[in-house]
Specification:
Length: about 375
C-alpha cells in the first residue's frame, strides 16, 4: 500500500510535541511491515533537514510565519501544499494529523479536492473554541474536511463528542490509540533519585507547578534531584526565576525527540502536571521504559494509570502532586514494572499497526 502521512511540523527540539511522534511511530511501523510510506511535513530549526528518521522517508518543506503572534496556528508551509497537490494521486490513502492550523488545513483541502481517500487524526487539537481564528477556519475548512474524511480517528469519548460538536454532525468515527515502541527498559541513575519533567515550557504544561512541587518536597527533606527538559514556549524566564540558584532543580533545555526515551531511562519518576492533556506521548514513552508516572486527573491517560497502578493520579495542585511523587519515590519499582507491562500490552506498536491497517482498508472499501 502506498501511504502518505502528513503532520504539521517537525523540529529538532520536538516543539510540535505528540502529533509528530505519533506520526513517526505509525510510519515506522508501517515501513517495518513493508508498506511504501512517506511522511511529509513543514520544518523549522534544522540547519539541514533530515531525509529520514527511524527509517521513515521524509519530505520536508520550510515553515513560515504568516500571522505573527499566533504561534503554530499562524504558520504556513506553502511548499508542502504545492507538493501534495502535485503528488496526491500517487498514494492509495493519505493520513493527515489534523489541527486548526494553516500548515495542514490547506493540505487536507487539496486532498479532498483531488478525491484521494483520506483519514484525519486530530490528537485532541480540534475542540470547541472561542479563539477568534477558530470560527472562520471552521466555517471555511474544518467542518467540510471532517465530513469528507473516510475516517476520523479519536482517542477518547470526550474527543469524539468534541469533534461532533465542532462538525455539527455525525462523522465516520473510528477509535485509534496512540502507540509507543518497545524501548529498552530503564536502568535508573546514580546517586539521588531523579524526578523528571519532559515537555514544552508552555503555560498549559505548568512547568512552574513542577518547580513548586520540587521546592515543597526539598523543604520536606526528600532526597532527590528535579530536572526539566524541553524547549521554551513562553515559561522559560518564569522557570529560571523560580529555580533561582538551587542546584537541585535544573532546566536542561530542549532535547532531540529521538533521545527522550533514553533520557527517561535514567530517571526515577516522570511527572507531567499539565492541564487538559488529551493523550500525552511522553507519558507513554516513560511507561515504556518502566518509569512510574504522575499526572493530573484531567489527563486522558489518567484512568489507565489509575486502573493499572502504573503511577499515581493527582489533583491539579502542588500539594496533591507533591504527595503523589513522594509516595511513588518511596517504592518506585512496582509502579515502574506495571507501567512497562501496561505500555507493552495496551499501547504496543504491533496492535496499533494492526488497527491502523484495518482503518485504511475500511476507508478504501468505503
Amino acid at each position: 500500500m502506498r501511504i502518505l502521512q502528513v503532520v504539521s511540523l517537525l523540529t529538532p527540539d520536538g516543539a510540535f510535541g505528540g502529533p509528530a511522534r505519533v506520526a513517526l511511530n505509525q510510519s515506522a511501523e508501517l515501513v517495518r511491515r513493508g508498506h511504501d510510506v512517506t511522511l511529509a511535513a513543514g520544518f523549522c530549526g534544522y540547519v539541514s533537514p533530515p531525509s529520514e528518521i527511524d527509517g521513515v522517508p521524509l519530505r520536508l518543506f520550510p515553515a513560515r510565519t504568516l500571522l505573527p503572534g499566533s504561534g503554530f496556528r499562524g504558520m504556513g508551509v506553502p511548499g508542502l501544499a504545492r507538493w501534495v497537490h502535485e503528488h496526491a494521486a500517487e498514494f492509495d490513502i493519505i493520513h493527515i494529523h489534523f489541527g486548526r492550523d494553516l500548515m495542514v488545513l490547506p493540505v487536507a483541502a487539496i486532498v479532498r479536492q483531488r478525491q484521494v481517500p483520506y483519514v484525519l487524526q486530530t490528537h485532541g487539537m480540534v475542540i470547541p473554541s472561542k479563539h477568534p481564528l477558530a470560527g472562520p477556519l471552521d466555517a471555511l475548512w474544518t467542518r467540510r474536511l471532517l465530513a469528507g474524511a473516510a475516517a476520523v480517528l479519536y482517542l477518547t469519548g470526550l474527543e469524539r463528542r468534541q469533534l461532533r460538536e465542532v462538525a455539527g454532525r455525525e462523522l465516520r468515527f473510528l477509535e485509534l490509540l496512540n502507540g509507543v515502541p518497545d524501548y529498552p527498559p530503564g536502568h535508573g541513575g546514580h546517586g539521588s533519585p531523579e524526578v523528571l519533567f519532559v515537555a514544552r515550557l508552555d503555560a498549559r504544561k505548568r512547568p512552574g507547578l513542577f518547580v513548586a512541587v520540587a521546592q515543597q518536597l526539598l523543604r520536606e527533606g526528600v532526597d532527590a534531584r528535579f530536572s526539566l527538559v524541553g524547549p521554551d514556549e513562553g515559561e522559560g524566564v518564569t522557570v529560571r526565576d523560580l529555580i533561582g540558584d538551587d542546584s537541585r532543580i535544573t532546566w536542561e533545555g530542549p532535547l532531540d525527540p529521538t533521545a527522550i526515551p533514553e533520557r527517561m531511562a535514567s530517571a526515577s519518576v516522570y511527572v507531567l502536571p499539565s492541564e487538559r492533556e488529551p493523550y500525552p506521548m511522553t507519558v507513554l514513552e516513560a511507561m515504556s521504559v518502566g518509569l512510574p508516572v504522575v499526572v493530573c486527573d484531567d489527563c486522558g491517560l489518567a484512568p489507565v494509570i489509575d486502573r493499572t497502578g502504573s503511577g499515581l493520579v493527582a489533583a491539579g495542585t502542588a500539594d496533591s502532586v507533591a504527595a503523589a511523587v513522594k509516595t511513588v519515590l518511596s517504592d518506585p519499582a512496582p509502579f515502574g514494572q506495571r507501567a512497562r507491562e501496561t505500555a507493552l500490552r495496551d499501547f504496543g506498536m504491533t496492535a496499533v499497526g494492526d488497527r491502523l491497517l484495518t482503518v485504511y482498508q475500511q476507508a478504501l472499501a468505503d
